[in-house]
Amino acid sequence: MSNTRRHVLSHPLVNARLSQLRQTNTNSKDFREGIHDISLILGIEASRDLEEESFEGQTPVGPFTGTTIKPKVGLTPILRAGLGMTDALLSLFPTAAVYHLGLYREKVSLQPVEYYSKLPPVPPIDTCFILDPLVATGGTACAALAMIIDWGVPISKIKLLAVLGSEEGLNHVHAEYPELEIWVAAVDPTLTSDGLITPGLGDSGDRLFNTIRV
Q1: By three-state DSSP, how is residue 120 classified?
Q2: In whole angstroms, what separates CA 7 from the centre of its chain?
């Protein structure tokens, strides 16, 4: 996929952090911290074009013209792995509303299944950041996007943030939502027959919350 709506971070710090996340011997504490750090950079980069509003203020020395972020930002982490990205985005947008979406991928069909959503009747936000560490097949991201759009947030006001995506998954999302802005730290070439990104970094939810079965 070649389009101006997909942004892949190209930064030595991100590459080094992601390399640490990929390793099997990285423990849950270090994995959580790595996801947080990469998510923070994703959030900073993805918010470059947010509209600003000016105000007049006073420093100890003299008056100044400052700015605030004008749109009301909402965060939508996809449970459960999206929780690992939420604190980083809240550090950038401390007053943001957080709307959790419960979606899991059925193991045989690899299709997304919704199990939790408590979106209010009318969206009280202007911009929505969907948080999903891994975009593998793209099915879960597309399901979340459909829910947010049906809720009433236009695609032009939605940004998808991911730590890692597959070419196939990102192509799938782009085909369904060509106007969507996607921010991803890195892209891997292929999926396994089970729909896992390869080389990938494993199951991000299990690694975040130390629930890996051995």
Answers
A1: coil
A2: 12
DSSP 7: E
Mean pLDDT by 10 residues, the chain (214 residues): 76 95 94 96 97 97 97 95 96 96 74 83 96 94 95 97 96 96 96 92 89 74
3-class state of residue 8 by DSSP? strand
In sequence order, what are the beta bridge partners of 158? 128
DSSP 40-79: HHHHHHHTTT--EEEEEEE-SSSEEEEEEE-SPEEEEEEE
What's the token pair of residue 104? 């899991």
Per-residue confidence (pLDDT) for residue 58, from 0 to 100: 97
The burial class, CB within 10 Å (0-12 / 13-18 / 19+), for 54 is: exposed
Please give the Cα distance from 114 to 103 (Å, whole number): 5
- Contact assessment for residue 156 and residue 179, using Cβ atoms and an 8 Å cutoff: yes
Per-residue pLDDT, 22:
96
User: What element of type H or E holds 15?
Assistant: helix 12-22
Distant-in-sequence, close-in-space partners of 189: CB < 8 Å, separation ≥ 6: 166, 167, 198
Neighbours of 114 (CB within 10 A): 14
Element (H, E) at 30: helix 28-46
- Quick one: which of 166, 42, 20 has its CA closest to 93? 42
Q: How far is CA 62 from CA 56, 57, 58, 66, 68, in A?
A: 11, 9, 6, 12, 19
